[in-house]
Fold this protein.
Amino acid sequence: MNTFTENLYIRDDFINLLKTRDMMTLYNIGIQAYGVAIKTASMFNEKAAAWVKGRRGIWNKLSSIERGKGRLVWFHAASLGEFEQGRPVMERLREIEPHTKILLTFFSPSGFEIRKNYPGADYIYYLPLDTPANAKRFLDTFQPDAAVFIKYEFWYNFLRELHDRKIPTYLISAIFRPNQPFFKSWGKLHKEMLGFFTKLFVQDETSLQLLSTIGIDRVQQAGDTRFDRVMQIAQAAKRLERVELFCNGSPAIVCGSTWPADEDIIIHYINNHSGQHQKWIIVPHEIGESHIQSILNKCHVPTARYSDEKADLQACQVLVVDGIGFLSSIYRYGIIAYIGGGFGKGIHNTLEAAVYGIPVIFGPRHEKFKEALDLLKQGGGFTINNTDEFTSLVDSLIENPAITKTAGQNALSFVQSQLGATDAIIRQLVD
């Protein structure tokens, strides 16, 4: 569920309002208030400014759309992560039905700005604010034959309009937890939204059982399409000559999507084990110049940045990647992966590394990530809480290559066992 919807309905003052008779009116008031609030925030917040700018003049842009004849399927993603979950379904649909048009919408600028030129869709736009008038106008423009919402996107007016028009509507790669509004006494509006879907494709048995407790039975446990996506990525992984030159046959530990809290732990280990022959590749989540310089300054061993073509890569022990788009291919060069984010809001994508058959390490904030919990159970993942635990674990994996290899095999076997969600969903989508 997107942050706005969670904030809108979980706050105690709004809970009391939602118990009144006209919840729909309150929802629409809340949506309008959100629109005003984000316009105000856009004056001093970069992301809010991008949200507003991206939607400015959207109806003028849409007025020039020529829908034409033929089938059209609408996919909606909150942001980039949800797009990646929907991508294998879009691409499989395009393979099976090359003449079917694909409409892709985003709620967040971080998804739209990165994928606004994605060649797998015919139309790519921001989702207009969820008002009754916008929902009607948007659907009048595109007249989709089916709609697919990805994981955590619930917009009442769009869903209700789709339902009223009898347009088949699906939720894919969804996962539910008992503390969500759907399962609360005050969550009537949320339950109603679930009823608007033709079918819900959920990741696990727990979600299926939870939905059954509130009478939602048009549900299929299909798994998570991210597994299919990471397998696609691995099969299309690029050779990176500079990484190969840096590794030069030595084992590498890849640290992906790291934040400062992760980097402090990693660099502490590197600086205290400078005599080891392992190579370290750090791919920070944020690649601003000040952050890159901070990493370089903290490393007390020979270190190079990826973009420095004059660097003697073979002589360096650490490579800091100061560009985007490399990480999923870099994991293939690792014997161990560390996944960042576990000391902040939550870990990043563990599956991008696990698909290469290497063990993954991550911090304590992983409880909401089913794939991380499953990797721990399957023996393909490890979690650490501090510098000492990281040091002990990495020492053990380096000194016991058989354990490292077995853990990597467990990680790959887990990914392979979860493939197939795309096929289950696509059978419902094809004409």
Observations:
- The radius of gyration is 23 Å.
- Confidence is low (pLDDT under 50) at residues 1-21.
- The first strand starts at residue 72 and ends at 77.
